[in-house]
DNA sequence: CGACGGGACGC
DNA sequence: CGACGGGACGC
């Protein structure tokens, strides 16, 4: 996408720039050094359309570093793969269970694990006439809602036309983002993990602007609560 | 601990 | 010609 190619400082490179589009559609795996691409394909293709599999290897010795990336077509597929496969063994010879996380976008520059806290909550723009009950009704078809709220003017109590919906699982929030009907009420909706990305995209700016987002939001020691408020 | 390759436009 | 913006919770 444009954001990615701008960040990489040059021409459009499909194989690289699609890696984080849509957001949260790539998983990062910690696996055995003896696990091959073919085993990954076999175990992860049930979760959806795989666009890329990559076992990271030493440039010279070609020995696996025991980590890998699998890119899916959809965020919900990546989330489900994480939910189902984290903590599992891929083969009978594995001595340790694998770890599966949603990969950080390449442009973020951060290597911290993406928390479920960020992946289960979405930010929605809705008609001001919506009550919290309306919001819940509208979004419960996508999964189990833990909590939802509407942002209101504290003085008048009137809705600002904005809200949050928290699901139990990341894959449910992803499905809400993917399937929510844009034409009937909900105007925009972001996974909170990608809110900054979406916001910049909406304004037509490249993301990140230089490295400032990465520095000020991610590498300054702040956590999700610092950045997004109490969750 | 455990984080980023390969390949290359498009009429 | 006639598209479009706005925008963040609260124990």
Automatic annotation (TrEMBL):
A GO MF term: RNA binding
Domain RRM residue range list: 16-105, 120-220
Keywords annotated in UniProt: RNA-binding
Protein name: RBM45
Complete-protein stretch covered: 2 to 232 of 290
């Amino acid at each position: 996408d444009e954001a990615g190619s701008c960040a990489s400082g040059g021409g459009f490179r499909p194989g690289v720039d699609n890696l984080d589009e849509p957001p949260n559609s790539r998983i990062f795996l910690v696996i055995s050094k003896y696990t091959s691409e073919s085993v990954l394909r076999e175990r992860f293709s049930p979760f959806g359309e795989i666009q890329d599999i990559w076992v990271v290897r030493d440039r010279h010795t070609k020995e696996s570093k025991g980590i890998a990336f699998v890119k899916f077509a959809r965020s919900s597929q990546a989330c489900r793969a994480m939910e189902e496969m984290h903590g599992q063994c891929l083969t009978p010879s594995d001595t340790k269970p694998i770890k599966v996380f949603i990969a950080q976008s390449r442009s973020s520059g951060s290597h911290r694990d993406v928390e479920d806290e960020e992946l289960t909550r979405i930010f929605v723009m809705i008609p001001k006439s919506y009550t919290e009950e309306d919001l819940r009704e509208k979004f419960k078809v996508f999964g189990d809602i833990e909590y939802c709220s509407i942002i209101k003017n504290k003085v008048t109590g009137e809705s600002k036309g904005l809200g949050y919906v928290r699901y139990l699982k990341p894959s449910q929030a992803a499905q809400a983002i993917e399937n929510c009907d844009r034409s009937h009420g909900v105007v925009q909706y972001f996974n909170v993990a990608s809110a900054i990305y979406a916001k910049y995209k909406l304004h037509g700016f490249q993301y990140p602007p230089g490295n400032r987002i990465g520095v000020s939001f991610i590498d300054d020691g702040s956590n999700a609560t610092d950045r997004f408020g109490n969750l």
